[in-house]
DNA sequence: GTATTATGAATGAACG
DNA sequence: CGTTCATTCATAATAC
């Protein structure tokens, strides 16, 4: 793969007050580019029910996939994270889109336009072909679906959950003379 | 100060009062997007040893950082939580990726691939005399903001956000027999 | 060559 | 606190 050495990320953070510091670092960060075989294996694993592989699993997968090309554990990690997230995202969108037609009488919403992938079937936990992980590989219980509807937006937490009133003092005296502290 | 070079960041980050005014169901409350300065200050505080700021400190920090842009106490709180957690995670897992490749040939590959490892900024010097705004008298001089500043450019962070602590035996048989492939 | 899409990577927010 | 979710950013790949 040729290197189009032009990849310098510009995180143009435009803000009212923002003054982007110097970002003139042409750091070339190359991201992992999975091979076809790697993607295939990962996809199969995913379809087999693996959603959130453990560290151990990730390492094993990474090791195996390294045979097909350069890869790191983090790539596997991210891959699963993204894949899972995007599947949900897609399902959610479809669901919302079809939300008008659905009737409470039939819970089958297979009329989605993208159900090809969305359906994904309820992977059963019996994947003999993937004996790689004898452990609780598929304990994700993704079907649980977690009804975190969050109002679709984002919860506006007025009082955020931190209550550090306790004299934790896990940090040194910290002179923190920040002129304000 | 030159202006933000990039015209990107289309994410209409209205940093007003969360009033996006998105027509329709646009009740989207965006998440905090720290400015470069804010990140810098927070990073400095963290590097100075602050790990779990008290409520009071959070308040003060937030107040000060609000000068650079919209920010809330909860943002500061979360920032420290995330930063601390991720630092730890990164450190726990380092180069297990190579661990497998380098077979037990007693041949330590140390610079063959991009499987770099942790940046290893073992600072954590707990500077008691921290100054929030390092005008120029910041104690440390070495590890300034080489790579830890992953907010404005290509972050070449190698480690990934999940812990791997398993002593991990060499490399077991690995029954990844995806025969169906 | 430019616009769009797909997706790797990053991180704020929040859960358990 | 460690882990997970959701959203966003950046870029390789691809369409136009």
According to CATH, what is the class of the domain at 36-98 in chain A?
Mainly Alpha
CATH architecture grouping of the domain at 36-98 in chain A: Orthogonal Bundle
Order of helices and strands of chain A: HHHH
Question: Given the structure, what is the number of helices of chain A?
Answer: 4
Largest sheet of chain A: none
- Largest interface by Cβ-Cβ < 8 Å: A-B, 72 and 87 residues
Overview of this structure, please?
Chain A has 181 residues and is mostly helical. Chain A has a domain of 63 residues: Arc Repressor Mutant, subunit A (Orthogonal Bundle), CATH 1.10.10. Chain A is built from four helices and no strands. The longest helix of chain A has 25 residues. The radius of gyration of chain A is 23 Å and the shape is extended. The first copy, chain A, starts with 35 loop residues before the first helix and ends in a 62-residue tail after the last helix. The N terminus of chain A is likely disordered. The interface between A and B is large, with 72 and 87 residues. Chain A binds a DNA duplex (16 and 16 nucleotides) through α3.
């Amino acid at each position: 793969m040729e290197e189009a050495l032009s990849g310098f990320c510009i995180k143009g953070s435009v803000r009212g007050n923002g003054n982007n510091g110097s970002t003139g670092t042409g750091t070339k960060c190359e991201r992992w580019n999975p091979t076809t075989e790697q993607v295939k294996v990962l996809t199969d694993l995913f379809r087999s029910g693996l959603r959130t592989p453990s560290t151990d699993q990730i390492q094993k997968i990474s090791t195996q996939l390294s045979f097909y090309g350069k890869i790191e554990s983090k790539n596997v990690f991210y891959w699963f994270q993204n894949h899972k997230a995007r599947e949900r995202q897609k399902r959610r969108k479809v669901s919302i889109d079809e939300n008008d037609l659905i009737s409470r009488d039939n819970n089958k919403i297979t009329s989605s336009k993208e159900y090809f992938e969305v359906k994904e079937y309820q992977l059963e936990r019996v994947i003999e072909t993937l004996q790689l992980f004898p452990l609780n590989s598929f304990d994700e219980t993704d079907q649980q679906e977690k009804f975190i509807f969050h109002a679709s937006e984002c919860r506006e937490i007025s009082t955020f959950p931190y209550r550090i009133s306790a004299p934790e003092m896990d940090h040194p005296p910290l002179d923190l003379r920040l002129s304000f502290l």
